[in-house]
Amino acid sequence: MHLERHARRVNPAHAITPDELRHVHMVGIGGVGMSGVARILLDRGYTVTGSDMKDSLTILALRAAGAVIATEHKAENLDLTGDTPTCVVTSFAAIPQDNPELVGARERGIPVVTRSDVLGALLLDHVSLLIAGTHGKTSTTSLAVIALQQAGMDPSFAVGGQLSTTGTNAHHGTGSVFVAEADESDASLLTYSPNVAVVTNIEADHLDFYGSEESYIHVFDEFADRIVDGGYLVVCLDDPHAAALGERIVQQGDRINVIGYGTSDACTRHPSIAVGAEITEITPKPDRTDALIRISVPAHASAGNSGGDQNEAETSTHRVEMHIPGKHMVLNAVAAIVSSVLVGADHERAVSGVNGFQGVRRRFESHGTIAHGYYEGASVYDDYAHHPTEVRAVLTAAREKIQAMDSVAGHQRRVIVVFQPHMYSRTEEFASEFADALSLADEAIVMDIYGAREKPIPGVTSDLIIDQMTIPTHAAHRVDEVPRMVSSIAGPGDIILTMGAGTVTMLADPIVAALHEPVQ
Prior knowledge:
By secondary structure, the protein is of the alpha/beta class. The chain has helices spanning about 1-10, 30-45, 55-65, 100-105, 115-125, 135-150, 205-210, 215-225, 240-250, 265-270, 325-340, 345-355, 390-405, 425-440, 465, 480-490, 510-515; strands at about 25, 45-50, 70, 85-90, 110-115, 125-130, 155-160, 170, 175-180, 195-200, 230-235, 255-265, 275-285, 290-295, 315-320, 365-370, 380-385, 415-420, 445, 475, 495-500. Helix 11 runs antiparallel to helix 12 (about 345-355) and helix 13 (about 390-405) runs parallel beside helix 14 (about 425-440).
């Protein structure tokens, strides 16, 4: 299986020792995942050096915190402070193995490890809460952090995006809990042994790495097997594969406690899994999505030890108010509440925390609403969605949002999506699914594929999606033409969404500017 071959690559032959963290050199330090680990290392008093291709706000912030960073890749960067690094950290997905710093480190006998190896070492002296799943990891991790902070627990955390409330993606807290994402894209989640693991959903992805859907699904079973004795697996019962994972673990015995969450119908379908939180009502509103939930998780359960008898759990009812629209965000919020209670948060404070959640960068992130002129009331949002299921969830949330709003000057509000496919292999695999999901909008602009680390595949272009669309769709071959295209089709009160994992995120503000211009 592909998984077996690649898992050996991402798991170290031996655990990183504290001495190996004394001076960490990070290749590609400006990335969201790498920079988060760098922040925590700096906060813990370790020496951090690194390199990236260019300066950024992230690089400047790390320098201000004490990191020494070069803005090009060369072997000499290993001596930025005059001391030899005790380990060199890289990302196999983003950094080629012939990178001069990696080559130089191996020649000098310096251990070369992955970000997940270092994060795993940082987790060891904490109660670890890890969020896994195909979709929703960053939002759920962020929600759990906010819930724990509201409960006064000051967790350490490493998130795959910037929290709007703090403006950071990582923090070395004073509390005993560490919250982090467990990334399955390269099987690096198998590095960790969590006290509490959440699986939000499981759906075929990263098939360029795994080779088959079966291998991809299986990695979550292996991840669950790594949960400590007496720990907790928290699964979404609305997701068929996540629920099936929970049922498989229940059948293996009582080494791990399995807790489910989801809507009432989903909870009823899986009687073998103890329900930690049931969503009894979801109500979309113009400015938020409300939900009523029943929590049945024992407060202050000992996540690292056996126990947590669900028969002794007190049931409490709470109203969740999510300021980011969509059922998927309600599910993420409930996952965060359940898991945060398992590691010690109070029910009421956990709910209060998620109700105050202002979002994560690039998750239905608002870039502005036009106050006057022809486009009055039109709003522009940016979202990271780059898988058909994510696209469908975001567009469904947008439709629910406009359905709860009044028309503007007699104009029926519409949803317009600007989508940039991410990676050739994903486009080839899911072209039909992308077309089906994007057709939930009223009109679409589809950009050329953002290849990321991939080389082009002959015959694979955005036309594979466009040709199957069932709504008016326009091809955009140049980034700079998109704002004008949007202004030519948008109207008052419309929701415009830029969507994808590539350079499309740079277009939200130019689109806002274009909508402020007078109509010719």
